[in-house]
Every structure is written in C-alpha cells, then in structure tokens.
Amino acid sequence: MEVSTRISRSKTFEKKLTKVPDFIRKKVMFWVFLVESSGVAEVMKSPGYHDEPLKGERKGQPSVRLNKAYRLIYRIIEARIHIELLEVHKHDY
After folding, report:
1. Tell me: the pLDDT tens digits for 28-75?
2. What is the Cα Rg of the chain in Å?
3. Domains of the chain with bracketed CATH
C-alpha cells in the first residue's frame, strides 16, 4: 500500500530546527521520514515516540517525545493526509 503523507515545514520551524542540538534535528528528520514512508497512523502506534495530545494552551495538538527534554509538536490537516510541523522546543519540567 502506498502512503501519500505530505509534511510541510514553516520558515519559523526551519529556523527553530537550526537552533536545536544535532541529535534532535536527526530525530526530527527520521520521524519525518517514517511518517512520509509509513503514514502517521503507523508511526503513532510506536511506543518510542509517546505520541500524545497536549493539554492547556495547546490542547488537542499532538506531540512526540524526541528525548526527555525535547518535543515535536505538529498539527494534522485533512484527515491525516497533510501534516504541518509546528514546533520543536525544549520541554520545561
């Protein structure tokens, strides 16, 4: 089955991505590769990413854990066909 998931990245996202550590950037790019090749539904099943909806101001927006400190926050548009990466940031604990 061919998966046709498109991922768009805003200029703001690209700028923020240049400011994170290299290993985090690599994890983001690997997640993007997995989603584009397997589809977001399959990647969401992976327990390693802890794909979960956020609470508070970002209620309902899904995020994946890149490590203990960093999360990738994204938005799904058009019934899981188009994903817009919103942000990669250091998570405050």
Report:
1. 999 999 988 888 888 988 888 889 898 888 888 888 988 888 888 888
2. 13
3. 6-90 (3.30.2310.20)
Q: What is the pTM of this model?
A: 0.81
Burial 63-91 (b: 16+ CB within 10 A, else e): bbbbeeebbbbbeeeeeeeebebbbbeee
What CA–CA distance (Å, rounded) separates 86 from 8?
9
Residues present in the chain in total: 93
Residue 54: name the closest of 66, 37, 35, 71 by CA. 71
Q: Is the pLDDT of residue 21 over 70?
A: yes
